[in-house]
Amino acid sequence: TDLTASKKFKDATARASIISQNLDSEGGLRDILKSGDDAKKLEQESRAAMTPDMLKAQAERLAADYAADNQNLDVTKKLADTYEQLDEHETALSFYEWAYHLSEKDPSLEKKVSALKEKVGRAKVAELRAFIETNPEHPEIDKYQAQLSEMKAMQMAGLIAESEARVDKNPTDNELRYELGSRLFEADRFRDAIKHLQMAKRSPSLRIKVMNMLGQCMSEMNMNDLAAAQYEEAINELKGMDDTKKLLLYNLGLLYDKMERKADSIEALKQIYAVDYEYRDVAERVESSY
Questions:
Q1: How confident is the model at residue 181 (pLDDT cuts 50, 70, 90)?
Q2: CA dist 275 to 94, 278, 286, Å?
Q3: What is the pLDDT of residue 48?
Q4: Distance of alpha carbon 134 from alpha carbon 130, whole angstroms
């Protein structure tokens, strides 16, 4: 279960294989690696091309294999993946949970189980919310609204507790820190979220997302100058105008407006207006300023 030891074991095994088979000769290792990359690409393309009927047939075949041997980790993982592709998330979750048990707690499967639990929970909340919205005159609407509030609170509490347990086990994992920080943010626990988001900011791949969320946390706590600094730092690190930069500029524009820095607010929104007229209510805000 030691991830560092596991990685070094794999590295050592690969080196031993290279030496024993003389694969580090000119072209040898590179050809094998290229072949491996091609095989992986073909597998991904094959999965993407499968129709629902093909996936159902695959699920039936794998289910037969699973019935014959439910201790087979590879079959269990493939069955879980197939049900996930079929969008049968609750069934997929049950098989991923069993695969996680069989793998003796593989961290990648732990993340998959966590992600699917969240997806399944959110789907149930969305289903109940949709029922309430389409049946506002239902005689028991108050009961359903209370159920919705309770369901959301319980789901979020469970997600936060799960994230906290994973962070306790892997305190240096920035992705887990971001996951916990974002869940605390969603629960309006902005002060608690900041600590974990600041640690997640160390990750180059998470920095921009983290700074956007930190800006929102600080804005909610009326620490507007600190929030603006987060948005500005993130914007300066982005060169092109993509959806992420538009969102940051939009959040910064609204924050400047909140701070009564009207000119700065419009200047931020103008940058979006120049490339995307239809982005949210940017056109209305910019044109009304003239």
A1: very high
A2: 46, 9, 13
A3: 59
A4: 6
**In Å, how far are 23, 96, 130, 148, 173 from 114, measured between CA atoms?**
40, 10, 24, 21, 15
Q: What is the pLDDT of residues 138-166, one digit of tens each?
A: 999 999 999 999 999 999 999 999 999 98
- Own/partner pairs, 179-182, CB within 8 angstroms, 24+ separation: 179/114, 181/210, 181/213, 182/213
Whole-angstrom distance, CA of residue 149 vs CA of residue 60:
38
- C-alpha dihedral, 83 to 85 to 88 to 89, nearest 10°: 90
Q: What's the whole-number mean pLDDT along residues 83-89?
A: 92
* Model confidence at 26: pLDDT above 60: no
Q: Residue 130: which residues within 8 A CB-CB, separation 6 or more?
A: none
Amino acid at 125: V
Angle at 29 between CA 27 and CA 32, to 5 degrees: 100
Q: 249 near 273, Cβ under 8 Å?
A: no
Alpha-carbon distance 76 to 69, whole Å? 9
